[in-house]
Amino acid sequence: MYRYVVFDVETPNRYNNRMSAIGISVVEDGVITKEWFSLVNPEVSFDAFNERLTGINEDMVADAPTFPEVWEEIEPLFSNGIICAHNATFDLGVLKQCLKYYEIEWKPSVKYACTVQIGRRVLPGMKHNLNVLCDYYGIELDHHKADSDSHAAAEILLRYLEDGADEKSFIRTYKFI
User: What is the Cα 176 distance to its own chain's centre?
Assistant: First the structure.
C-alpha cells in the first residue's frame, strides 16, 4: 500500500488562491498514522460567504502562521507520499497558488489521488459529496473544517481500499509548473 497524504484546505474568499486553514491526515499501511491542523493567516480579506461556510474570520487568523511558515512544517509530509484530497484538483490548485504567490519552489509535479474520482468508480450511481459519503460509511464529519474534512477523506480512502479499489489505477499527476 502507498503512503497517502490526505489534505483539505479552507479558503478566505472566492478567489481560492490562499488558504485560511489546512488539515492533513497521513495514511500508512491501512491506518491513519498522523494528523496535523493549522489555521493560516492568508494576508488577504475574507468574504462573508467563506466566513459563514468555514467559521473562520480575520480575527481568528490574525496571529496564525502565514503560508510560508506553515509550509516549512508540512513540506516534509507532502514530499513523501501520494497527495490525496476530496476533489483534489481544488485543494491542489489552492496549494499551487500559495506556492506561486510566496515564490516557494517545490516539485514540478506530484502524484495524487482524488476520493471523488475513486468514488465514481467504486460507488457508481451515487452522489460523491463528502457529507453524503460520510453518511454512507458512518464517518463523523464537521463539514468545512479542514481537520475534520481531511480525516473524513482519509477514512473514505481507507474504505475504498478495503473494498478492493486498485490503487495504481487511480493515481494521476498534478503539475505545479
Answer: 16
CA 148 to chain centre: 10
What would the pLDDT profile of 35-62 be if each residue is shown by its tens digit? 999 999 999 999 999 999 999 999 999 9
Q: Which residues of 122-159 are buried (b: 16+ CB within 10 A; e: fewer)?
A: bbeeeebebeebbeeeebebeebbbbbbbbbbbbbbbb
> pTM surpassing 0.90?
yes
Sorted by sequence, the CB contacts under 8 Å of residue 150 that are 6+ apart come out as 6, 7, 8, 23, 24, 25, 35, 37, 85
Residue-wise pLDDT for 112-145, tens only, equals 999 999 999 999 999 999 999 999 999 999 999 9
